[in-house]
From TrEMBL:
This is Histidine kinase/DNA gyrase B/HSP90-like ATPase. Keywords: Kinase, Membrane, Transferase, Transmembrane, Transmembrane helix, Two-component regulatory system. SMART domains: HATPase_c. One of its GO terms (cellular component) is membrane. Residues 255-442 form the Histidine kinase domain. InterPro entries: HATPase_C_sf, HATPase_dom, His_kinase_dom, Sensor_HK_TwoCompSys, Sig_transdc_His_kin_sub3_dim/P. It comes from the Bacteria. It comes from Georgenia muralis. CDD domains: HATPase_UhpB-NarQ-NarX-like. One of its GO terms (molecular function) is phosphorelay sensor kinase activity. The chain crosses the membrane at residues 29-48.
Length: 447
């Protein structure tokens, strides 16, 4: 197996991860701020445009009411209602200044829906039904204003102008007869007023929201950097804990090897020598004692090998994992291994995943009664996944830790402290699958 490729120092990768998390948090906050900005500004803009339109239409109604009251009503006589040419010409002259300026069309309706006056001679005398005059005459306010493209029959001469403001107001003759005066204005006047109000108000609204977002962004960045600091401290503490655990395991393994195992091995040799020299009746007892001692020595040596695992820096995680399956192969189990050729995981992550695999495979060997085992190490985007599965007896995870699975519970705590997860799926008679996931800072070479 190839030696792990250390592409850059671990501390530098960790710093990049922290900066990436802070950057992601700031980007998330900024995106949320922009979304909030749109959610707030779009309704405000629509509301401002609506209010500006209402105000402009109200102004048009006021202008038309004054025009009807002071310019039109005094000239509405019986002669004009009868269609007298001189009376109509006199009203033309009175309205000429407005028609040359802001008023595009003028119409005067009676209650029957007949146009008794218009600046377009072809319309005078035409009847379009009482519904036309009823819009204003029957309305309690006595007026109505809309802005739209008009394409009704009575608007044949206005359609070419596009969007127009149409205003209906009441007008009265000297004898109290109710008429309806209708005026048309260029719709651009209302749209210009809308744009003026929006442009006058929008900068202040946008500036206020921008200042608010900036005021919130500063503490958000501070909180993100504080989180970055906490993560760095947690990572250092975890690293120290892993290092201390490794040192303690090595010390225990060394003490066992240098003292206890050596003493027991020497004792077994002494018993073996005594066995050869002893009387026949004493040999079975000495033989049994020697076998027990030798079994214990082998068990202790295996324990020291577990306490002091292979050099992960030298073998690499894939190589160390490959060594773990040897005892299963010696037991005749079918082992399927899917491991990459190399990895650039830092030593802490390698050690954690190695311990998960070692504990899971130890449980398979001692407790599962499995015939086949799978071991795989792979990457998903931003994470490393280790899986150990078997077709053994299984157990019920809801019933607490099964025999030999307490070690996995302890390893789960360590993984969670490092931001990872450990999941154990099992059921009686259906085997067991152990999945360990570590996020960030990991890459594997080709399988």
């Amino acid at each position: 197996m190839a030696r792990p490729v250390e592409r850059e120092p671990r501390w530098r990768r960790d710093e990049k991860e922290d900066r990436s998390e802070v950057r992601a948090a700031v980007q998330h906050f900024t995106a949320l701020g922009l979304l909030t900005f749109l959610v707030v500004t779009v309704p405000i803009t629509l509301w401002l445009r609506h209010e500006a339109e209402v105000e402009a239409l109200d102004d048009a109604v006021g202008i038309t009411e004054r025009l009807a009251q002071f310019a039109v009503a005094p000239l509405v006589t019986e002669s004009l209602l009868a269609g007298d040419a001189d009376a109509l010409a006199q009203l033309d002259q009175r309205l000429a200044p407005w028609l040359d300026d802001t008023l595009l069309r003028a119409k005067l309706w009676d209650e029957e829906g007949t146009i008794v006056y218009s600046d377009v001679d072809e319309l005078i005398g035409q009847n379009f039904g009482p519904d036309q005059s009823a819009r204003a005459i029957l309305d309690p306010s006595g007026s109505d204003a809309t802005i739209e493209v008009h394409d009704d029959a009575e608007n044949a001469f206005e359609t070419e102008h596009g969007e127009l403001v149409e205003v209906y107001v009441e007008a009265f003759t000297d004898d109290g007869q109710r008429l309806m005066f209708e005026g048309y204005y260029d719709g651009a006047l209302v749209r210009d007023e809308q744009n003026r109000v929006v442009l006058a108000t929008a900068p202040a609204v946008v500036a206020a929201l921008a200042v608010l977002q900036l005021a919130l962004l500063v503490p958000a960045v501070q909180l993100a950097r504080r989180l970055e600091g906490h993560q760095a401290v947690r990572r250092r503490l975890l690293q120290r804990a892993v290092e201390a655990s490794d040192l303690e395991r090595r010390r225990i393994a060394r003490d066992l090897h240098d003292e206890v195992i050596q003493d027991l091995a020497g004792l077994s040799y002494a018993i073996e020598g005594e066995e050869l020299r002893s009387e026949q009746e004493r040999r079975p007892l000495l033989t049994r004692a020697r076998i027990i001692l030798q079994d214990n020595v082998r068990a202790l040596r295996a324990m020291t090998a577990e306490l002091y695992p292979p050099d992960l820096d030298e073998l690499g995680l894939p190589g160390a994992l490959s060594q773990l399956v040897q005892p299963l192969l010696e037991r005749g189990m079918v082992v399927t291994v899917d491991l990459p050729e190399e990895s650039d995981l830092d030593r802490e992550r390698c050690a954690m995943l190695y311990r998960v695999a070692r504990e899971a495979l130890r449980n398979v060997l001692k407790h599962s009664g499995a015939g086949s085992v799978t071991l795989s190490l792979s990457t998903d985007p931003g994470r490393v996944v280790l899986r150990v599965g078997d077709d053994g007896a299984g157990f019920d995870p809801r019933g607490g830790a099964a025999d030999g699975h307490l070690g996995l519970r302890l390893i789960r705590d360590t993984l969670e402290e490092a931001g990872g997860t450990l999941e154990v799926r099992s059921a009686p008679g259906e085997g067991t699958e152990v999945t360990a996931v570590l996020v960030g800072g990991a890459a594997l070479g080709p399988a």
